[in-house]
Each structure stands twice: as C-alpha cells, then as structure tokens.
Amino acid sequence: MNIPSSIWSLLIGIVLTLVSLWYGQNHGLLPTAASSEALLVDELFNTMMTISIGLFLFVEGILIYCAFKYRRRQGDNSDGPPVFGNVPLEILWTAIPAIIVLGISIYSFDVYNEIGGFSPHELHDAPVAQEAVSMPGSAIAATLSDSLIASAAPNLNQEKSDRARLDPATASVRNDDQIPQKRDAPGMGLVTPSIGPSPDREGKPPEFVVNITGMQYAWIVTYPDTGVVSSEMHVPVGREVLVNIAANDVIHAFWVPEFRLKQDAIPGRQSEVRFTPKIAGEYPLICAELCGPYHGAMKTKVIVETQQAFDQWMQEQQVASNDSLNQAVAVNPSDISTAEFLAPYTKDMGIQSETLEQIHSNHHH
Ligand code: CUA
After folding, report:
1. Which residues contact 229 (CB under 8 A, 6 or more apart)?
2. Closest atom, ligand 1, to C-alpha of 292
3. How far is CA 56 from CA 6, 51, 105, in A?
4. Per-residue b or e along 251-269, where b marks 16 or more CB atoms closer than 10 Å to that residue's CB
5. What is residue 266's predicted lDDT score, i.e. its pLDDT?
6. From the CA of 210, how far away is ligand 1's center (Å)?
7. Nearest to 288, CA basis, from 260, 261, 268, 262
8. Which three-class secondary structure state does DSSP give residue 190?
9. 87-114 vs 36-69: helix axis angle to the nearest 10?
10. What predicted TM-score, i.e. pTM, was given to this entire model?
11. CA neighbor of 247 nearest in space, from 175, 169, 159
12. What pLDDT, in 10s, does the model give residues 194-215?
C-alpha cells in the first residue's frame, strides 16, 4: 500500500499537536498554584509550553529524519547539491514566529493586567517630585508624564512610605536616619513597583493588610491591626491580601513561587503586592535579589490557613509578645557579657560561646 506524503504530513501534524497539548497540561514543572494569580500565570505558562514542545518536536523531528535519510552512503564521495535561497520558505519561517511572539505578548499583557500589574490609579495619583524634574534626562520623562507634574495633589507615595515608617514593630531595626533616600522617597509613581488589585477589585480596599520588611538577612512581618511581629507570614485563605514591602538596608525581593509573584523590596520606598491565596498550606517565602553573602539563607514561610486558625495564631502571638515583654523587663542582663547572655541560645545553634567571644573581639580590633 502506498500512502501519499500529504497524508503522512497530516497524520504527523495531528500526532504532534496532540502530544504538545497533552504535555502542555502535564509537564509537572511548577509547584502548587496557591493563589488566584497563580492560576492565570500557569495558563500562560502552559500555553507557551504547548507551543514550545510542538516546535521542538517539529524541528528536532525533521533534523533527525534528515540526518538519517540523507546520510552518506557507502562509497559516495560526491558533493551534495548546492542549495541556497528560498523566498517563500524564508517568509514563512519569519511570519510564523512573529505571529506566535505577538500572540504570546498580547496574552501575557492581559495576564499582567488581570493580576493588577498595571494598576492605573496608582500611576496617576503619584506626582513627580520636584527634584526629579530638575534631574538630567528629566525632559524625556516629562514628555511622558506631563499631567503628573501639573498635578497639585499630595504626594501619596511619600505619605504611604511615611505611614509605613510609623509602624513601631520595625522601627527598632529600620535605622531610618541612615537611609539617604528617606527624605525624598520618590514620588515617581511610574517606577514605584506595585502589583495592585485585579481590575474587578479596582478602587476597593484590600481585605487584609500585612507589612513585611527585608533586612540582611531576614524578613520581619508585622500586622498593622494588632502590632504583632513575626518571622513568618500568616494569611487567611480566600481573602485578598495586600503586602506592603519595605527594605531596611539594601534591595531584597519578596518571592513566593507558589503564588507566582515576585516584588522588589527597596530602601526608602514602599512597594506593594496584592493577591488572593486559594489553597491552605505552608509555602517558602524567598529573597530573590542577591543582597549579600547570606542572601541564600534569607527565607521564611508563608502559612495560608483558615480564618479560624489564623485568628487563633494571632491570639497566641499577642499573648506571647506580652509575655516576652514582661520577661525582658525582669532579666536585664547588663552585668553579664554578650557571650554569657547568648550562651543558652547559641548552644541550640551549635555555636561555642568562645567562638562568639572571638568574633566579638575580632570585630572590635
Ligand atoms: Cu535579601 Cu537576598
């Protein structure tokens, strides 16, 4: 039986498409999608994976087929035919990738908009600081944001960042006066990183607010409603969370792979990320910006839990912070050395108190 090559092409095309579609949904490369934003991002990723696998199999398939079919036969020492230039083919292999790339970029813009990446209100509410206007290169910026300069509205970014600084929980570690940017926290809304509300929640306040401050090499989480400070982030499941992100010393980045969200933490500036956790569980919260020698150790957990479990945890924290406050007053170790004071803690960490003493004295020499 002689099957025409067009039928073969059709069959191979169908098989390739089916395999790509199947693999695009079953690659198993991503961790749990634990936020509503993650579902959108994953659909985009799966689409790109489907296209990539299809292209990969198509190109590699032809390569292997041709390498086999046109291999050098025994005793054949002649040259291959000189082939060059094929205009229709070149148009085709330029047009197809162009259409694919255009399609993916439109789709990804749409996803970015859906997760609140553009957040247009934030942009227009923020007037440009006067110093920024007189900076070199600002003429270019001015043509882009004329309306912003004309606006006499108060600098909301400055207000926001000032409010974040009032947070007593992180004040002790923030060293505000050592941050040069403090007085002119930029009013450049165009560059303040923000993943705001999804379009259907535009203009509505978030259902839950939590602040996080990055410092070398830890995250400090504070809850503005209760003043509780924690090294882990607890959030209730199913409610839209706003995370206000700040940095104490250098640039860090808030990253929770299971939420598919990443946001820079910048000294002297307040950035935000809004998301809705969908699945209860414990997820890693990782610093995603090289911030120093121990950057790799700068991680903690996000615990997404039911409202009930969350309320209970919050209550325990409030009790615990009261307790430790009392203890701190009771044992004021002013007459013992640092090493002696830290001994019970360093024992747990496997550090000898002598080592600590050495580090301490080295530090002063
Ligand atoms: Cu903080 Cu890397």
Report:
1. 169, 170, 220, 221, 222, 321
2. 2
3. 21, 9, 20
4. ebbbbbbbbbbbbbbbbbb
5. 87
6. 19
7. 262
8. coil
9. 160
10. 0.66
11. 175
12. 777 777 777 777 888 898 988 8
Tell me if 214 CB under 6 Å of ligand 1.
Answer: yes
Cα–chain-centroid distance for residue 5? Answer: 49
At residue 69, what is the residue type? K
Tell me, in angstroms, the distance from the centre of ligand 1 to residue 287's CA: 4
Q: What φ, ψ does residue 219 adopt, rounded to 5°?
A: -110, 135
Q: Which residues contact 181 (CB under 8 A, 6 or more apart)?
A: 267, 268, 269
Residue with tokens 């039928």: 7
The token pair that represents 71 in the structure block: 């291999």
Token pair recorded at residue 282 = 């414990």
289 lines ligand 1 (CB under 6 A): yes
- Mean pLDDT across the stretch 303-326? 82
β-partners of residue 252 are: 265
Beta bridge partners of 283: 302
* Tokens 């970029």 sit on residue: 105
Rounded to the nearest angstrom, the distance between the alpha carbon of 211 and the centre of ligand 1 is 17
- With H, G, I as helix, E, B as strand and everything else as coil, classify residue 267: strand
